[in-house]
Amino acid sequence: MSLPIVAIVGRPNVGKSTLFNRLVKTRQAIVDDTPGITRDRLYRQASWNGIDFMLVDTGGLHVGSDDVLAVKVTEQAKIAMEQADVIVYMIDAKIGALEDDVRIMRDLKKSPKKVILAPNKVDDPDREYESSEFYSLGFDIMVPISALNGLNCGDLLDTIVEDLTPSEPVIAIDETGVAIVGRPNVGKSSLLNAMTGENVTIVADLPGTTRDAIDTRFEMNGKKYVLIDTAGLKKKKIYKNQLEYYTMLRTVRAISRCDIAVVVVDSMDGLVAGDLRIATDAAELYKGLIFAFNKWDVVEKDQLTADRLRRAVRDKISTLSYAPVLFVSALKGQRVVKVWENIERITVERKKRIPTSELNNFVREMVERRTPPAKKGKFIKIYYVTQPEGDPPTFIFFCNHPRLIERPYIRYLENRIREAYGFKGTPIKMVFKLRK
Predict the structure, then answer these.
(1) Which residues are registered as beta bridge partners of 51?
(2) Cα distance between residue 69 and residue 34, in whole Å
């Protein structure tokens, strides 16, 4: 299903990032500490009352400014508002609504989308009472908050998710959703065209829920797929200076709907931070993952070039080393069949299950070989593990102190499971639960 998007907007210094940081803590997201990948992303998955959504932070809105940077930041905020399902407009309750706020809110009131006015810096009950004056701005929904100390942030989340439900699934249960994602101009359209060429029966084109995308439903080798395209961009004149930001928002939507993400990389550029951000998004959402280095036909290479690029992927983000790395030329059709072969293989891997008795014997041997390190004077014991049915592969470990198990030991368990059972191309979900 496509995750709804909630955008936090407002003038500079009203507390948008403080609110963003507080709200994303409502869900314990799995993130990687790789420098430069997660630090500068301004979107995160959040959850409240069982509803998942994508929260987008934005820069400050500057009205009428001629500053080049201010104009670009404002354009990005407007893109976020256009893509969003819910808009949270923040103002500084201590200062009140300024002229710029009034001009921005005049446009927001015309929007068909749900807009929540959130006066921020309401740090005590008296100020909360005084904030009722902001109802005069004409918004039907208002929640006074303090992003700093958390006042009414739960009420804000209740209001956000009140009418928010994931988009209806376009992908049926017996179909595999494949998203073709990547930075602008890396050859996504060319790869899509090559993948849906010969030997593919296109059943139907259907509107997707990624705003401008058209999903393609087709069959290959007796299996059913839905190809989620993120290549086509509309209104290019509006976003010509903000193409990557716009692509990012559309990519987030596409990844949330797919089972497997094919990250297209420009072989001439090599693996850059933008590629890694996209791949990390897919991993955090537990999607299957393939790196497809495109334009391989025009790269000056020797017999070791491919190996060097594979090592670069492992070195730059070792947690994604399970993802296959392919070298293709969409334009020439070279090795595009390898993309399909890996999609089919990953589809099977994501549904693989290990018998419970075999799994417990294996985990017992792993734990005996390397026991979890004690922490805070407490010894950690893992009693047993199960793998429930589902996609992606999920392992539930029952232990006495689940919160004390640290990430290096979790990686150790995951790596040993992969060495023994594969799970090539798919993240593994590791869950630790308390059993006294």
Answers:
(1) 48
(2) 27
From 275, 266, 324, 274, select the one nearest 298 (Cα to Cα).
266
What is the DSSP code (8-state) at residue 371? P
Whole-number average pLDDT of the chain = 82
Q: Which residue has the tokens 């693989």?
A: 352
pLDDT band at 390 (very low <50, low <70, confident <90, very high): confident
Residue 50 tokens, joined? 């069982």
Indicate if the pLDDT at residue 206 is higher than 50: no
Plot region of 365 (φ>0 → left; ψ -120 to 50 → alpha; else → beta):
alpha
- Reported in sequence order, the residue ranges of 200-343 that DSSP labels E, i.e. its strands, are 201-207, 214-220, 223-229, 260-266, 288-294, 325-327
Name residue 42's amino acid.
L
- What is the rounded distance in angstroms from the CA atom of residue 253 to the CA atom of residue 3? 6
Half-sphere exposure of 78 (CA within 13 A, CB side): 16
Q: Are 10 and 60 in contact (CB under 8 A)?
A: yes
Residue pair 383/396 in contact by the 8 Å Cβ criterion: no
In sequence order, the 6+-apart residues with CB closer than 8 A to the CB of 266 are 183, 185, 186, 187, 293, 294, 295
Residue 182 CA: distances (Å) to CA of 110, 123, 212, 251, 340: 34, 42, 16, 8, 18
What residue type is assigned to position 235 of the chain? K
Nearest to residue 117, comparing CAs of 99, 84, 149, 139?
139
- 233, 236, 238, 244: CA torsion to nearest 10: 60
The rounded percent of the chain whose pLDDT value lies above 90 is 37
**Number of CB atoms found within 10 A of residue 327's CB:** 22
Interhelix angle 407-421/356-369, rounded to 10 degrees, is 130
Task: Please work out, in degrees rounded to the nearest 5, the angle formed at the alpha carbon of residue 286 by the alpha carbons of 318 and 433.
Answer: 95
Q: Is 172 exposed, middle or buried (0-12, 13-18, 19+ CB in 10 A)?
A: exposed
pTM of the model: 0.73
28 pLDDT more than 70: no
Give the chain's length. Answer: 436
Q: How far is CA 180 from the centre of its chain?
A: 14
Q: Please name the residue that has the structure tokens 């996609």.
A: 391
* Token duo for residue 94: 């201590």
Residue 413 has pLDDT above 90, yes or no: yes
* pLDDT level of residue 35 (50, 70, 90 thresholds): very low
CA-derived radius of gyration, the chain: 24
d(CA 230, CA 253): 9
